[in-house]
Amino acid sequence: MGEINLARVDDRLIHGQVMTKWSRGLNTNAIFVVDNPTAKDPFMKEVYIMSTASSGMTIKVFSTDEVVEYWNKTKFENYRAILLFKNIDTVNEVVEKGLPITRLNIGGIAKTKEAKFVIPSVGLKPSDAEILKSLASKGIEVFFQTVPDTKAVTLQDALKNF
């Protein structure tokens, strides 16, 4: 049976920090990008899958329905995976559909007009904060951390800045 080493929200999805710091530090052998628009775009899927050709890491790109179906059918086989999401709404969707996420790292969300920075790399909208509180109430550990060698910030402490 596989396992979810970490679920992470980072609107850049796969980039150097994910590949070098998060995946190696967690003994990960797969990264699963979960994003409906990316899953529907053959060119972008290929870009992500090919981005790690030399790393020995398996990359899969899923829609929300596909990742839940893959979990239900295979329990992620023997993969120790990081799940990467572009936004908090998508995490909430897969949790509602039954994906067993226990730890959620919020690592990078660009600030928009309606968002406020809660840590330097994360801008949250009021609706994001409400979803994160809801996820935490379901027993999911929500924390903010850009890279593993920086201090993690709890949801409670991050929302003090909101």
UniProtKB/TrEMBL annotation:
The keyword DNA repair does not apply. One of its GO terms (cellular component) is cytoplasm. GO terms for molecular function: kinase activity; protein-N(PI)-phosphohistidine-sugar phosphotransferase activity. Residues 1-162 form the PTS EIIB type-4 domain. Its main location: cytoplasm. Pfam families: PTSIIB_sorb (PF03830). Gene3D superfamilies: Phosphotransferase system, sorbose subfamily IIB component. Keywords: Cytoplasm, Kinase, Phosphotransferase system, Sugar transport, Transferase, Transport. This is PTS system mannose-specific IIB component. The lineage of its organism: Bacteria, Bacillati, Bacillota, Clostridia, Eubacteriales.
